[in-house]
Amino acid sequence: MxxxxxxxxxxxxxxxxxxxxxxxxxxxxxxxxxxxxxAAKWKDENPExxxxxxxxxxxxxxxxENMLLANLENKAFNSRLVExxxxxQFPDEYKDNxxxxxxxxxxxxxxxxxxxxxxxxxxxx
Length: 125
Description:
- The longest helix is centred in the middle third of the chain and has 24 residues, at 47-70.
- This protein has a domain at 9-89: Orthogonal Bundle (Arc Repressor Mutant, subunit A).
- Helices cover 62% and strands 0% of the residues.
- By secondary structure, the chain is mostly helical.
- The radius of gyration is 28 Å and the shape is elongated.
- It has six helices and no strands.
- It has helices spanning 9-19, 25-32, 36-45, 47-70, 79-89, 112-124.
């Protein structure tokens, strides 16, 4: 049986430090010895943990974006790898928005005499 853990100040420091170095949320969870499921439960039940994770994730995203910006002119820098990391770690902010537009043409035949006759009948009723 696994002992029930509690969120501590030491865990908070570890998470924030990892975020400042671009770590993923799963790396943060592993570093403090919790599962993804436990993290989800803690986020729902503990506002301090939820805010710590939100801040650490902001730090991590900033780290990756700064890495990309610092190496814009570096031809040896693997920007594709950074793009993959950003899309993987922050899918809500780096997802493809592809709109599909289509034109549909359809021929419709309306029997106006019948429609008018039905309308008149309905009004008389």
